[in-house]
Amino acid sequence: MASNNGFDLIVIGGGPAGYVGAIRAAQLGMKVVCIENDKLGGVCLNWGCIPTKALLAGAEFYHRLKHDAGDWGILAENVGHDWSKVIGRSRHVAGTLNRGIHGLFKKNKITHVEGFARITAPGTVDVLKGGADGKKADTLKARHILIATGARSRALPGADFDGEKIIGSKEAMTLAEQPQSLIIVGAGAIGMEFAYFYNAFGTKVTVVEMLDRLLPVEDHEVSKAIARSFKKQGIVTHTGMKSSEVKLTKKGVQVVVADVNEEKKTKKLEADKVLVAIGVRGNIEGLFDDKLGIETHKDHIKVDKATYRTSAEGIYAVGDVIGPPWLAHLASEEAVVCIEQLAGHKPAAIDYDAIPACTYCQPQVASLGSTEQALKGQGLKPGEDYHVGKFPFQASGKAQAMGTTEGFVKLLTDARYGELLGAHMIGEGVTELLAELGLARRLEATAGEIIATIHSHPTLSEAVHEAALGTESRTLHF
Known about the structure:
3 domains; FAD/NAD(P)-binding domain; alpha/beta; Enolase-like, domain 1
């Protein structure tokens, strides 16, 4: 490949930030090249968001056939599963969407280069074959460089991933054989989704969380509700416990966990495998020459969150590589905002206080804005400074008809003006209900305006309407 100096933009990484940024730049008339060391679509499409949702959809279907079919008058005896097909379907879904991105690149005339990228100077990127220590195959030049290399699973101290008994999320979704038992370290979204998935298919699952509750970033009431649900499903959880030692055994793995407040209190847990889901670290190793002076913090690249500029001229970064929250939809939006600014547009800034977050276990969890404990931490008082409206799906006609009455919608509104401060939901399909509240937050809509918006009957979305009514103490159906 000959050197090419005619690009306007070099995008490093083909995940939700990279490929979306590349497409938007091409739409705005830029000549774009995207360098990706693996598959287009990145972790999200190939090893994260999309294939895990395919796995979870299968788990939900299987669970309902096995445990709930009789309630519907459906005779589904001797229900079993073919593990290889469960995994295979997930891979097929990911493969289909991966091919779709190749098609989008072709349509938008984006050059796709396979290889490892290393930024050697402003506007200059070497393409290496065979990884970070590989042989240089080409040098590309452009006016701007956008880093969108994403992140990868963070290992437990003293217990590196081996891909067999100590695994990360990538291995967890492609295991050739279903483990009989599994320990999951970390009760964030990734850990909780895999806990539900494996448990639904019959694996004995134990979840260990260092903080005092499951899904620790969510509203306290949601954390309590998911804990009750997981216990009912047979998932064992240990909160306020940290893993102090991991040992490989002949049969599998032993994890020693200790009480965070009293380290002498320990338990020995054993399983076929341990899945580590304690967070991620940015993919920055070997990415740029130290002489460029690109600042980093805790394994992520530091940027100006308004412009996404790094400390090096002409180099920008978006997505998981710049730090939390590590969410694909946020990564894509950051890329669009960054690119539109480079093109001279003035896009609306991202409201980092209202980023939607979803966890796709069952029951699902969805949220945005402030939690109630955060409001109390600011010294605000319920009833005086903010109002709470809560509506249980038990009182929803649609949820009753669907047989999915677990959970609730909880809204927090400003006591003076009625503006939405936070939304927290747990239950069937709540990840699909969140967008309405995101729009309400963006437009500074009040509880009264949500109430005045007619919600179709019967739908699950009526729970949002009722929760809004609840903030004004006038819920109709509960």
